[in-house]
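Morning run. Coffee first, then this:
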Amino acid sequence: MAEYDAIVNVVLVGEASVGKTALIQRFLTDSFESTLPTLGVDLHKKLVTIDDKGVVVRLFDTAGQEKFRSVTDDYFRKANGVVMVYDVTQKDTFHSLSYWLAKVRETSPANVKIMLIGNKIDLIERREIGNAEGLAFAQQNQLFFTETSALSDEGGKVGLGFMQVIEEAGRQVLIQLQQETNSEIEKERKSVPVIVERDKKSRCC
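And here it is:
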């Protein structure tokens, strides 16, 4: 018997050094450690419960360096959810969001769920992008949005942000799987031959 009911693919994107790996680490282990730059794509997994169903979340941590960007296309095509990350202390990482969003919408399924996370809000004196700017971009493009810090994670916003997009994407996957199951049952029902027995008493000769 399977230990889970569905698999949800979530891809993290954004410029190099915005903290994608640190956010994943905080979500998975509730800890923070300095990390090396991601080369290509790293895969992480977590089992969560959505509406009493076991769901395996596969988190794809992608490199932000330009030379690795073509690698992400295959992961976008299979994505149920995307987390776009920028560094609130580096305005260039915010301005590049338009590129990442266009890339996601060009390559991912039309119904993909997208969360925007502004990271490193603990660095108050170095902030270059305000909360209002991030929120406006999210609202304009119909994205979920939160600000947080992988380092301090005040209010547990890392987990809340991840789970919001995971639950939205997960429910969508579970509904699709149920529809496919119902469709298969209906096909099997229609394929069963109907045997009609003739009334023996009506026979003659």
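The two ends are 57 Å apart (CA to CA). Good start to the day.
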